[in-house]
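re: the backbone from monday

yeah here it is again, tokenized this time
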């Protein structure tokens, strides 16, 4: 059991983590800080945190486990705010959807205390944000990707693995570089496409009429377009190189469909559709098998 969780960012992700730890009996006390005082107060009233901290630094004071649940663009500033109270035995984690930029920020700021930081990406979330949506079951059955580096201490890496498993997660480890390449393809690009599609439709004179005719397929395909704008702005910019590489690959695939349709080649078009259909039919969400 941990004595104190220092929670920086008391929104959906951070609040859900705190509630999950409390329910599992893994922490005695949660001290929370959010940029918005009203969020921190709401988190205390909801029982997500036990004490409101006036700063990120004071949220870390006395903590043996720290979670940064802030937008990825705010990671470096948060490290700078807490570095003076980081101790060698402290476990520090984040929940960012990109990892290379987060690791680079930790290297620049934490330096000799870098070993206690275990970068983490829980593959979980919702299109609704805010502590009022915090749920202790948010991470149950979900995959968590840890991206340790050569300086990550074995003790903290084991602690991170144990704590995520204890709240019901499947834990996988891979390099920050492999993580960002993979999630550019399966997460960041799909979000980009959903955002672009919504804008493409609404940018047409008959866009509203078209949307009024959309059904469940459109709803499911575009669900992620309702995601938090500032969060996804930061993610798409942070992983821009991998994302743009995946976008080019997608454009080639789209062009193959366009050319086949333009030529009227029904057999070739059916073959392309069958390839995608068969792949999707046999795909299942990962159970957390380790990546090399």
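seq for it, each position gets an aa:
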């Amino acid at each position: 059991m941990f004595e104190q969780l220092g929670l920086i960012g008391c929104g959906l992700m951070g609040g859900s983590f705190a509630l999950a730890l409390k329910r599992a009996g893994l922490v005695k006390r949660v001290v929370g800080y959010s940029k918005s005082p009203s969020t921190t107060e709401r988190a205390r009233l909801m029982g997500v945190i036990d004490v409101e901290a006036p700063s990120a630094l004071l949220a870390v004071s006395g903590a043996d486990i720290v979670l940064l649940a802030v937008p990825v663009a705010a990671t470096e500033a948060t490290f700078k705010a807490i570095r003076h109270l980081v101790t060698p035995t402290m476990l520090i984690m984040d929940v960012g959807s990109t990892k290379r930029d987060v690791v680079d920020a930790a290297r620049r700021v934490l330096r000799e205390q870098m070993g206690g930081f275990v970068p983490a990406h829980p593959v979980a979330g919702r299109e609704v944000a805010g502590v009022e949506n915090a749920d202790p079951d948010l991470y149950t059955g979900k995959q968590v990707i840890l991206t340790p580096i050569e300086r990550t201490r074995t003790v903290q890496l084991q602690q991170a693995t144990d704590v995520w498993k204890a709240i019901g997660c499947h834990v996988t480890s891979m390099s920050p570089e492999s993580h960002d390449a993979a999630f550019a393809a399966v997460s960041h690009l799909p979000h980009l496409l959903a955002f672009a599609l919504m804008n493409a439709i609404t940018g047409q004179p008959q866009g509203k009429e078209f949307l009024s005719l959309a059904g469940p397929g459109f709803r499911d395909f575009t669900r992620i377009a309702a995601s938090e704008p500032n969060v996804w702005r930061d993610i798409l910019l942070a992983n821009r190189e991998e994302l743009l590489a995946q976008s080019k690959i997608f454009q080639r695939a789209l062009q193959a469909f366009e050319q086949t349709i333009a030529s009227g080649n029904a057999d070739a078009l059916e073959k392309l559709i069958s390839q995608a259909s068969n792949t999707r039919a046999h795909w299942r969400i990962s159970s957390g098998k380790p990546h090399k």
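The CA atoms of residues 219 and 225 lie 10 Å apart. The first strand starts at residue 2 and ends at 8.
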